[in-house]
Structures are given as C-alpha cells and as structure tokens.
Design a protein that fits this description.
With about 170 residues, the chain is mainly alpha-helical. It is built from six helices and two strands.
Length: about 170
C-alpha cells in the first residue's frame, strides 16, 4: 500500500491532526521566540537551528517526497525573499553588559502570527493541488529558506556588534 493510499484511508484521522499540528507548532515557536529575547545569544544559538533543520533534507531520499526542481526553487526563494523579510526587519540584536541579546519588538510576535496565518492558508490551498507529502516538502523548503536568511542576518549583526569574526560567546 502506498503512502498516498494510506493517507486516503486514514484521512478522517489525519486531516484534523494536519490542521492542529501547525497551530501547536506555531504557538511553540512563539514561546521559543519570546524566550530568545530573555537569554543571551551566542554563535551556537544562531547557527544550530538551520543546521539542525537541514537534516530534514534526507526526506528527499524518499520518492514520494520529491518535487520538481522548479517547485523547490520557487518555494525556497519565496521563503528567502518574501517570508524572511519581515522577520529580518523586526529582529535586532543589542549589547547589554557585554552580552548580546535579541531586542524585543512589539511587532515581532504580530509578524510571526501573520506569517503563520499565511503559511496555513497557503498550505490549505496548495494541499488541494498536490499530494500531502509533496506539500510537506514544498513548505519545508519555504521554511528552510526563511530561517537561513534570518539566521545569516542575525549572525552578521552579531559579528558587527561583538566586533569579532567567529566569536563564540
């Protein structure tokens, strides 16, 4: 039995989970981002999330997860050029007592909620056009593009603030 057939067989159970899962994940990320403004940043804290997230590229070893290159490129670029922009604009680092912190922005949480809503709406729309596994692949690439650009921007700002290349504070 193929994955697609399994999905169709258990769709009544999976559909609610696929709607609730992103909401739970979005709320978890909101709490994580609030926490991030309370603890000092380090190079590790900036670099590890996209590195850890990159392990999901192994999903493309499975044929049902693969998407055409054009879809992959468009999805990745949408994350890099569109979705990351508001996060970059509202993420600022500041030096307090010799330690770098992410500066609180009243717009940051609102933008994360808006981005979550956009992703959920797009997911719902695209999910009707392609298989659930391909939808997951496309949205992974979009999220990966978004987080990579954001973290590269944070790393550059961290280096500028600390005045050191590769500082591991």
């Amino acid at each position: 039995m193929s994955v697609q057939e399994l999905f169709l067989r258990y769709q009544s159970i999976l559909s609610p989970l696929l709607r609730i899962g992103p909401l739970v994940g979005g709320v978890a990320i909101l709490f994580w981002r609030v926490r991030e403004t309370r603890v000092p940043l380090s190079v590790k804290a900036i670099v590890i999330p996209p590195l850890a997230m990159s392990s999901a590229f192994f999903m493309f070893l499975s044929p049902p997860m693969r998407v055409p290159w054009s879809w992959a490129i468009v999805s990745f670029l949408f994350g890099v050029l569109v979705l990351s922009y508001p996060i970059l604009r509202t993420s600022r680092l500041e030096l307090r007592n010799g330690v770098v912190y992410m500066q609180r922005s009243r717009w940051f949480l609102a933008i994360l909620l808006i981005l979550l809503a956009i992703r959920l709406l797009l997911h719902d729309y695209i999910g009707h056009l392609i298989s659930p596994l391909q939808t997951a692949s496309v949205f992974y690439l979009m999220a990966f593009g978004m987080i990579v650009r954001w973290r590269v921007g944070m790393y550059r700002e961290y280096r500028r603030i600390t005045g050191a290349v590769g500082t591991n504070r």
